[in-house]
Design goal:
- The protein is α/β, with parallel strands linked by helices.
- It has one domain: P-loop containing nucleotide triphosphate hydrolases (Rossmann fold), CATH 3.40.50.
- 32% of the residues lie in helices and 27% in strands.
- It has 8 helices and 9 strands.
- A 6-stranded mixed sheet has the order 5-6-7-3-8-9, sandwiched between helices.
- Strand 1 and strand 2 form a beta hairpin.
- Helix 3 packs across helix 4 and helix 4 packs across helix 5.
- The chain starts with a strand and ends with a helix.
- The mean pLDDT is 90.
- Bound molecules: adenosine-5'-triphosphate.
- Adenosine-5'-triphosphate (ATP) binds next to strand 2 and helix 1.
- GO terms for molecular function: ATP binding; ATP hydrolysis activity.
- This is ATP-binding cassette domain-containing protein.
- It comes from Lolliginicoccus lacisalsi.
């Protein structure tokens, strides 16, 4: 089986709100898939279900064919950046990552590697409370990379990054996929991901609108407006 990420008939309700509505898609190995939809479309809810953080109302999700909660080595299989919160402001980036490494069974020696990978070596000994939002996003990505995973799930990773940071993120994601690994990257801003992705999964009000490869020379903006009417 070549699919790394599968979402099958996923529905999630919060009271009267249907956040995700019978969503089905799968992502093959070695690709960068953009997961697009307006604010509130259901992207984060889908990713949280995929990572076993919430229980679906119905439907299933799997990573390499296995539900996340049943993975034998989750941090080596999939790394996730869901939000940039959750860092203790008084700790240094290095200490934060060391704690995370120990908690997830990763050799602490990886910490300096991932700090270098995300361009934070120079700030490794600074307290995270003084980090900019963009630096916290990089730190979150470093945490996702600790287990040297084959799959990355990134929820709005460009939030808070300056143009240089966004360009860096694009090339980072591209290199990651070119080494045969897989990235699912959510965004509500089309232009952030348009130059990076091989395919797009577009949702609106929790439902699948389109899942298609990106054609060379395609005017993505026009395609998206036609499909969704509400994506920037
Ligand atoms: N824990 C929750 N309790 C109640 N409603 C929720 C909860 N989480 C999400 N929702 C609702 O579900 C819908 C989908 O939210 P979700 O965060 O998945 O969208 P999103 O596409 O990630 O949006 P954004 O781009 O703004 O992050 C929204 O209407 C949201 O208000």
């Amino acid at each position: 089986m070549n699919d790394t990420i599968t979402v099958t008939g996923l529905t999630k309700r919060f009271g009267d709100v249907v956040a995700v509505d019978d969503l089905t898609f799968s992502i093959g190995r070695g690709t960068v898939a953009g997961f697009l939809g307006a604010n509130g479309a259901g992207k984060t809810t889908t990713l949280r279900a995929l990572l076993g953080l919430i229980t679906p109302t119905s439907g299933t999700t799997a990573i390499n064919g296995t539900p996340y909660r049943e993975l034998a080595a989750p941090s080596r299989t999939v790394g996730a950046l869901l939000d940039s919160a959750g860092h203790h402001p008084g700790r240094t980036a290095r200490d934060h990552l060391r704690g995370l490494a120990i908690a997830t069974g990763v050799a602490p020696a990886r910490v300096d590697d991932v700090l270098a990978e995300v361009g934070l070596s120079h700030a490794a000994r600074r307290r995270v409370g003084g980090y900019s939002l963009g630096m916290r996003q990089r730190l979150g990505l470093a945490g996702a990379l600790l287990g040297d995973p084959e799959i990355l799930v990134l929820d709005e990773p460009a939030n808070g990054l300056d143009p240089e940071g966004i360009a860096w993120l694009r090339s980072f994601v591209r290199d990651f996929a070119d080494s045969g690994r897989t990235v699912l990257i959510s965004s509500h801003v089309l232009t952030e991901v348009a130059q990076t992705v091989d395919q797009v999964v577009i949702i609106r009000q929790g439902r699948l609108v389109a899942h298609k490869p990106i054609e060379a020379g395609e005017n993505l903006e026009r395609t998206f407006f036609q499909l969704t009417g509400d994506l920037g």
